Amino acid sequence: MGEFEGTVVDIDLRYTTIQDEDRKILIPNSTLFKKEIALMNRESNNSQAA
After folding, report:
1. For residues 46 and 42, what is the distance between their CA atoms, to the nearest angstrom?
2. Do 10 and 25 form a contact (C-beta atoms < 8 A)?
């Protein structure tokens, strides 16, 4: 999403929780539907738009 980077740890009805190195970030699901998301593959560090 550009603004946030981390690992998805929970998906709720209204929010998705992402864990980065030192904090948890709550992102409204409506934001995820409207913006492009880059999925990172840990093994190869390749990204792809979703």
Report:
1. 8
2. no
Count of beta carbons in the 10 Å neighbourhood of residue 46: 8
Q: Is the pTM of this model over 0.70?
A: no
Instruction: Sort strands 47-49 and 24-28 into parallel, antiparallel or unpaired.
Output: unpaired
Residue position matching structure tokens 């880059």: 38
Q: Tokens at residue 17, please? A: 């929780």
Cα dist from 1 to 7, 14, 29, 35, 50, whole Å = 12, 17, 12, 7, 10
pLDDT digits (tens, 9 = 90+) for 1-50: 468 888 999 999 999 999 999 999 999 999 988 988 888 776 655 555 55
